[in-house]
Amino acid sequence: MFDAVKSELTRRHLLHKAGFGLMSLGVVGTFGAVFKPDRTLAQTGSTPAKQPPMPPEKKLGWAVVGLGKFATQQIIPSFGECKRSRLVALVSGSPDKAQRIAQQHGVEPKNIYNYQNYDSIRDNPEVDIIYIILPNGLHAEYSIRGAQAGKHIMCEKPMANTVAECQAMIDASKKAGRKLMIAYRAQYEPYNLAAIAIAQKKELGILKAIVADHGRNLDPKDPADRWRMNKKLAGGGSLFDIGIYSLQAARYITGEEPTEISAMMYSTPNDPRFKEVEENVNFMLRFPSGVIANCTSSYGYADVKRYQVMGSKGTLELDPATDYYEHRLYVQRGKVREERKIQEQNQFALEMDHLSECVMENKQPKTPGEEGLQDVRLMTAIYQAAETGRTIKLS
Ligand code: NDP
What we know:
- The protein is 35% helix and 21% strand.
- By secondary structure, the protein is of the alpha/beta class.
- Strand 14 and strand 15 form a beta hairpin.
- Helix 4 packs parallel to helix 5 (163-176).
- The longest helix has 23 residues, at 2-24.
- The protein is globular and about 60 Å long.
- Mean pLDDT is 89; it is low at 1-34 and 40-49.
- The structure holds NADPH dihydro-nicotinamide-adenine-dinucleotide phosphate.
- NADPH dihydro-nicotinamide-adenine-dinucleotide phosphate (NDP) binds next to helix 2 and helix 7.
- NADPH dihydro-nicotinamide-adenine-dinucleotide phosphate binds at residues 66-71, 92-94, 97, 133-136, 138, 156-157, 183, 185, 223-224, 227, 233, 241.
């Protein structure tokens, strides 16, 4: 118990220092307290309750903003598996597509919005929560407008292009007295939760190292990948899109925040995909307990989504770690390597229901805006480390 309290206090101190370390390097703006995540439980929110708590059997109404590949192939179908959330509205710049999807999923035509009349969603009492699934560079604007319309917000990762935008999103939600959650689905997915528990309950002994790799081959013919080549819409390259999963894994497996970052970047010369955004970033993170994480991120190598955790008594491997389904978890102690089977669940339904429950019970989501801001702050430091060739000290 004492150790837990002590390590929490140490961590808080380091987090505080981490924020100032970055600030003194001019990496972050003038921001206050650094986020201290609780990886296990939703916390009681500090946001004032503007409505009485809702009955637990009620499903909250969700609006999806941006009907692209991820929204139409993963999120919208997952409402069918939600217990607390239902799709009631769509926001899209493509009226034909919106009408077709509305018809398929039982959304009333009056609940279809476009980007111009989006703000009038404030007058629709059926919509409790807005889910932003737009290109990254549009997350801040639509999250802020959504909060100003009095709605709770779920925003896709990465939270936004800059630390300042993330802070503005947090401020807007606080001002409106509404929740803001970042859709870090892996933190709701049963295999990743099992990996966190194995690491943190010391089944692997004392943690020493993490290796995390996330890569895919960016396809310029895929419309969903076109905006990813545009710095303004994407915020960054492979790091912002998928390297963020390596960064997240290192943070949620250790339960700590890094104190030092070094990095190298490489983009294939003359490859038109990488005129504005980077192809590869390899980065190293040092954590207060001594764990060192080696992470890779690529838009050049074929599908990889895995991590390994090495401890004094054993190792853990999750591969794939952050896919939509069919994860595989192995734990090795001595010469014995065993596969751990866990019931797969729809992680999108789990994360959406988590936010609905947090709204109903007035709790802070497990992955609030501050969690997204911390990743953007760290990714900014990773780019700085790669560009300068210097180790960035965060404490
Ligand atoms: P898509 O390009 O497939 O979808 C984006 C949608 O946004 C478009 O279809 C369009 O919808 C709308 N849009 C509005 N303005 C623009 C614009 N200027 N350029 C392009 N699209 C625009 O991308 P994804 O679905 O792959 O990604 C969307 C978001 O979801 C990103 O933030 C991404 O990081 C995140 N994502 C998260 C994943 C996860 O596992 N958590 C996986 C994949 C993506 P419309 O025609 O309806 O207006």
